[in-house]
Amino acid sequence: MLHILFLFSLLLLSSSPSTSNALDFCVADLSAAEGPAGFPCKAAANVTADDFVFTGIAKAGNTTNIISAAVSPAFVGQFPGLNGLGISIARLDLAPGGVIPIHTHPAASELLVVTHGHLLAGFISSSSNKVYIKKVNKGEIMIFPQGLLHFQINAGKNAATAFVSFGSPNPGLQILDFALFANDFPSKLVETVTFLDDAQVKKLKGVLGGTG
Q1: For the chain, which residues make up each domain, given as ranges?
Q2: Residue 141 · residue 162 · CB < 8 Å
Q3: DSSP H helical ranges for the chain
Q4: pLDDT tens profile 142-160
Q5: Annotated binding site
Q6: What architecture (CATH level 2) is domain 44-172?
Q7: Which of 24, 150, 153, 205 has a C-alpha 20 to 30 A away from that of 14?
Q8: Where does Mn(2+) bind (predicted)?
Q9: What strands lie across the sheet with 150-153, from one edge to the other?
């Protein structure tokens, strides 16, 4: 019996993960290049409490722009303390009529919580192109699965505020309208792949600053 207990204890020790090299955190060294696993760690001697506090979402963003909305991100690029922790957050401010255009986050799902006003929000499934739209009121939340096209609109008469959290320190972002009309994507090709006519494409490129 003693031999069995001894062997069992050896198995437990050999299968237990080592904690001697475990890191409590890895504050990003933003001066280095980001890799698949994130940024390399800032030297521990240079880490301070300020690395774990971010004030950039404390105030409302400027909504005086073409979308009447502002996104204030707290991703790893703005908040290095998030590096390696699998989380991030952003603040959304939308004036009446404001819109967060259709976009996708390739690297993370998104959880939205409305803290002021209400939003009309939705996403499009990739399997059937079914659209899921819901009015989200103050205190309510909505989830947007990873990689799916989604949007938020302030359809109310007052300003709205929401916070969105992500399952990644760097969820990525691609805005559909900007991808099509805010660059040098040749207009003829845009017309071919979107079935829009030349006048519509030229108009949208003019609004969003695209060329070609």
Answers
A1: 44-172, 179-208
A2: no
A3: 2-15, 176-181, 187-194, 198-208
A4: 999 999 999 999 999 999 9
A5: 103, 105, 110, 150
A6: Sandwich (2.60)
A7: 24
A8: 103, 105, 110, 150
A9: 131-137, 118-124, 150-153, 99-104, 174-175
pTM listed for this prediction: 0.84
Beta-carbon contacts of 111 under 8 Å, excluding residues fewer than 6 positions away, are: 141, 142, 143, 144, 164, 165, 166
Q: How far apart are CA 131 and CA 111, in angstroms?
A: 17
Q: How far apart, in whole angstroms, are the C-alpha atoms of residue 15 and residue 69?
A: 52
Inter-CA distances, 81 with 76, 120, 178, 196, Å: 7, 32, 30, 44
The Cα 209–Cα 167 span in angstroms is 32
Q: Rounded to whole angstroms, how far apart are CA atoms 115 and 111?
A: 13
For the record, the structure tokens of 16 come out as 């237990």
**What are the tokens at 81?**
């303390």
Can you say which residues are annotated as belonging to the binding site for oxalate? 105, 110
